[in-house]
């Protein structure tokens, strides 16, 4: 994975397109902001388990909680009798895919990483919490540098997942895209860390380190674009967090 320190957000905006020479013809770059430049690109499932988990094992864990989630929320996640062992078909099931996203939003360990199509929204999340380290990070990811992608079952591969989440406004305001990374181990598909799949031609990942001291300067730019806690999340709690950031930053 390539890694570049930059002096400010403007330099980041100038430099990241240079890492993806086919951007104009294939502009599907995804962005993810993290408030500590030293953090790894880990999904919450990896942090919770400390090891890999098969797709089927994770499917069983979601099935175990689905009825209780529905009982407490009133949401209905359609299930099927199929035993899912492949991530593509698992997330392709709208009911299970939506449950996986909903569970992740509310703190349940997940193999999914959330990205945004906007570098500005990624910057907001990088600086959202007052940084405790010298740098924040913005990751840039491109799944394919051409119109097709080659995979081998024995090698890790990252795939995008865009759930149908009607009624969840923040998915649209945040321009969210999810990814997961899988690899076959002894014929069984497992979720594995995203960094296992980076090869520079497809699943290309670039990390930029931005100074934490730039927080207020970045927020000033984002306010002019109406990118803030309230516009990205909605709701009264987000309104007051937005007002607190604006008032006390």
Write the layout of secondary structure elements.
Elements: E1 2-5, H1 9-15, E2 30-34, H2 44-49, E3 53-54, H3 55-73, H4 87-92, H5 94-105, E4 113-116, H6 119-127, E5 135-144, E6 157-161, H7 169-173, E7 176-185, E8 188-191, E9 202-211, H8 215-224, H9 229-233, H10 236-248
Parallel strand pairs: 1-9
Antiparallel strand pairs: 2-5, 3-8, 4-7, 5-9, 6-7, 7-8
Helix pairs in contact: 6-8
Précis, in short:
By secondary structure, the protein is an alpha+beta fold. Helices cover 37% and strands 22% of the residues.
H/E series, N to C? EHEHEHHHEHEEHEEEHHH
* Number of spatially distinct domains: 2
User: Which residue ranges are poorly predicted, with pLDDT under 50 across at least 5 consecutive positions?
Assistant: none
Q: What structural category arises from helix and sheet content?
A: alpha+beta
What's the overall geometry? globular
What does this structure look like?
This protein is an alpha+beta fold and 249 residues long. The chain has two domains: 1-40 and 114-160 and 168-249, no CATH class; 44-111, no CATH class. Helix content is 37%, strand content 22%. The protein is built from ten helices and nine strands. Helix 6 (119-127) packs across helix 8 (215-224). The longest helix has 19 residues, at 55-73. The chain is globular and about 50 Å long. The chain starts with a strand and ends with a helix.
